């Protein structure tokens, strides 16, 4: 067992911040933080992702549409799918699970 202390907690660094808390052969877990008014500049990943919104409010956008998100929401993104967070109205903190492990931006 491993306890991930601080996973999902907002970290204020400009323009946004990703910190990995766990990596295994099959997955990785990290925290992605975007401040109010920040710009999510990520590109599609080679991994599938699960986002758990731990704090904040924003709109999640994919080619399929846009969805307002807030604490407690869980989002699944298939590998290679275009997606981003926009209209960040409260400091946004997301626990992110990647499978296979995240390989960088």
Give a concise summary:
With about 100 residues, the protein is mostly beta strands.
Task: Please characterize this protein's 3D structure.
- The chain has strands at 17-23, 28-34, 48-62, 65-69, 74-77, 84-99.
- With 105 residues, it is mostly beta strands.
- It has a domain at 27-99: Sandwich (Jelly Rolls).
- Strands 1, 2, 3, 4, 5 and 6 form a 6-stranded antiparallel β-sheet that branches.
Keywords summarizing the entry:
105 residues, mainly beta, six-stranded antiparallel β-sheet, 51% strand, globular, Cupin domain-containing protein, Cupin_2
Which descriptor suits the 3D outline?
globular
Under CATH at level 1, the class of the domain at 27-99 stands as: Mainly Beta
Tell me the CATH superfamily of the domain at 27-99. Answer: Jelly Rolls
Helix content: under 10%
N- to C-terminal distance: 28 Å
Oligomer: single chain
Structural class: mainly beta
Largest sheet: 6 strands, antiparallel
CATH architecture of the domain at 27-99: Sandwich
Radius of gyration: 13 Å
CATH topology of the domain at 27-99: Jelly Rolls
Summarize the helix and strand pattern as letters: EEEEEE
Number of helices: 0
Give the beta-strand count: 6
Name the average pLDDT: 93
Low-pLDDT stretches:
none
Strand content: over 45%
Pfam family, one: Cupin_2
Domain Cupin type-2: 32-98
Protein name: Cupin domain-containing protein
Layout of SSEs?
Elements: E1 17-23, E2 28-34, E3 48-62, E4 65-69, E5 74-77, E6 84-99
Antiparallel strand pairs: 1-2, 2-6, 3-4, 3-5, 3-6
